[in-house]
Each structure stands twice: as C-alpha cells, then as structure tokens.
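[audit] Reproducing an earlier prediction to check determinism. Same input, same settings, fresh worker. If the tokens differ from the archived copy the diff job will pick it up downstream; this log only records the rerun itself.
[audit] input (458 residues):
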Amino acid sequence: MRSMFWLRIAPVLVVACAVVAAVAFESVPAAADNSHWGANYFPNVTLTTHEGRQVHFYDDLVRGKIVAIDLIYTTCKYACPLETARLAQVQTLLGDRMGRDVFFYSITIDPDHDTPPVLKAYAEKYHAGPGWLFLTGKASDIELISRKLGLYTEPNPANKDGHTPSLLVGNETTGQWMRNSALDNPKFLARTIGDWLNSWKTSKPGVSYAEAPKLTLDNGQYAFSTHCAPCHSIGGGVKIGPDLAGVTGIRDRAWLSRFIVAPATMLAERDPLAVSLYEKYKPVQMPNLDLKQEDAADILMYLEKQGSAIRGTAAQGAIAAVPLPAGTDLQPIVAPYLHVQQELSSDVLVSVSENARVIASEAGRFGPGGEPIRLAAESLEHAVDLVTARAAFGHLGDALMTSARASNVRLVGPDVRVAYCPMAKKYWLQIGEEIRNPFYGKSMLDCGRIVAELPELR
C-alpha cells in the first residue's frame, strides 16, 4: 500500500478527505507528466527576497527543486518564532545540501511591515544560510500563493497567531508533496525533506519497532526540547536566545515561571528585565507558547537538574568554564565591577544599575565565554534592593573570576586584590588591602581577609 502522506499539489488539498485519499493512492507521475502540478498550477507571481532581489515564485523558486515553504510574519508573538527556529534546526541537520538541492522559503503574510530590510534582520537573527529565503510581495499575490498551497488560514479573532503554523514540503520534479506542522520534530522534518522527498522509492526503513530503545519521558525534558531547544541551549552558548545554563540560580524563580507562561504580557507591562532581553535579542521576541504553570515548573526543574549536572561534571574536571577569546582585556568589566563593590560596601545603589549595564554590554562581546558574566550583570542591573543586588553581585564575581582563571587572564595586581568572607562564604575583588565587605556593608564592613590568587570556584 502506498503511503497516504504523499499528496499531489492540487485543490484537493483543501477538500473532503475521501477525495484526498483517492489522490493519495494514485501513482506519482513522472516529471514529464507532471505539468498539471507544475507551471499550470503554481502562481508565477513576483516576490522580493530579504536580500532585495526580485524572483518569480514558480520559475525561480519551485521548478525542479525540493522545497519547504511556510508563512510567517516578523511581529508574531506566538508560533512564528518557534517555527522559524525549528527550520533553523532542520537547516543545520541538512548541512551543505541547503542551497544545493534543498531550499526553504519563508513568506511573510504582513508585507506592509515586513520589507526586505526587516526580513533581512529577521533572517540574520535565525542564522539563515544559503538556500533559505525570506520573501515579501504584494498582499494579493501572497494570498494567492497561500491558497494554492493549502496554507491559507481564514481570519479568526480567536486565533491570536493569525495563521496555522503549517509547513509544505515537496519535490516539484516528482510531484511529491506533504503538509506538516511547522513545529514538528526537526529530525523528522529533515528526514522527510532530505531523504523521502529526494527518493521515496529507494528510501531505506530504519530499525524495527522491536529494536527501538525503550522510551522514557521526563516532562521537563520533553517540554524543553519541544518549546525551548530551538532557541536556547543549556551550556552550549548563545543561540537565537540566551544560554540557560545556571539561569535558575541567577534569576528569580517566580519571575522565570511567569516569563515562560506570559512573556508578551510582561513586555507589555514594561518589566525591566523582559524589556532588556527583548532589546538584546530583537527582532525575535520570546513567543507565547500557551504553556501552563505546571509546564513552567517542569521546565525549571529540568533546567535546575541540567545545571547541577554541568556543575558536577565541571567539578570532576570533565568540563571547564568556556575560555574567553585570546587576548581578552577584562579591564572594561573590572572597572565598573569595582565601582559596584564600593557602593555595596557603603550600602548604596547609586550607580549599580548603570555599571551593571556596562558590564553586560562588554561581556556580550566575548561570545560564549562571556555569557555567565553577562547573565549575572543583567540580573544585577535590575536589582531593586540591596539584598537582590548583593546576591547578583556574588554571581557576577564568581562568573568573572571563573572566566579569568579558565582563560589565564590576570585580575590580581598591585591595586586589585581578592578578598574572602568566611561568614558569607563569598569571594570578591576590591582595591587595596583594607577589607570592605560588599555582602554585609557597614554592618560588618571589615569581615573578611585578603587571599593571594583567584580562587578555584566550584
């Protein structure tokens, strides 16, 4: 029995299931007999790429190619960021086949806003490489394409997203077409596009069900891999969004939970940290994923476990802190850090936020090695009182000293010393030999001692 997934592009994509099934069981026509689903079917309207180049939809984009096509818009706060991140994962899995025999087309449904420069910035944010075009054009032409491809969604006020996140994949030469969820497993999509569409008749099956490993599900791991992994890593560095390694120790848990569930609401409320994250990673905005509080709790528990595993492995010497780039000068970070230390030791927050912002900006230039410093500095920037500021300052100092030690960058000198407080069990950098404790301030200003070198923090 032939697979019912392989459907020819035709109006039957959007009619009764019985008609669809009848088409599915027909044999796939040879290329020469495929004209009904070639130039005579696909609109050949003019579109404009994110690079500003004009192309014809059928002649330039579809004819003779294996393609994946979806509809997006850059201001979307719901599925679009996730579906584009999914395609970015599939792009990575397909490797050098992208732009050679496989092509992705993301077409905006908001052409008034999504001009080529806007789409270019969006494409760059998702690291779109060769063979992946973001396209705009006349609204009527885009609607025609979406209707012909079965991707059109009737306007529905109840649908906050504005469209259904579907992905059409197909091989115009063989007439094989399939409509999928754009949020599907990236490995499945890569296999569908790169293998089955390329030659479904010769595709080799995988291992039998009996040989498949036993599936064990962790709710947090499943939720993270489904909703978070396209944009975030845990210890792998910045992707489309920040690395989440250690985030549960740096950010307030209640804040994290609410941000996972209602990021757009927090941005609309001008939550300082939500705004800061948006400004850093725009035009991509953390999407609303319709997650519940229990989903957020599962994800945070998973992040916590993964963070503990990373720290535990690091303590055994298997994983070291990510080194900073060769020749890194930490002075632009150390100077504002010392200003913060002096203010906290005096029980004031006059310029703490400003200096933390400078540190975060400088650390962002250092790539993955600077990410722990940047995260801690962002948390410090939004501290509202001495208690939260001192906690964030402790994380910042640990990140700074760990990165410096891993990279053989010397911080200690004639003026800068490392101090340790046995009560707080925390290290910090300060100027001079006289102890000025930033964790207790005036209440126990001289609590601590000078140590010779940077500590090996665990």
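[audit] rerun output stored. Observation attached for the diff report: The beta strands are 46-49, 54-56, 66-72, 102-108, 132-136, 166-171, 176-181, 416-421, 426-431, 449-451.
[audit] end
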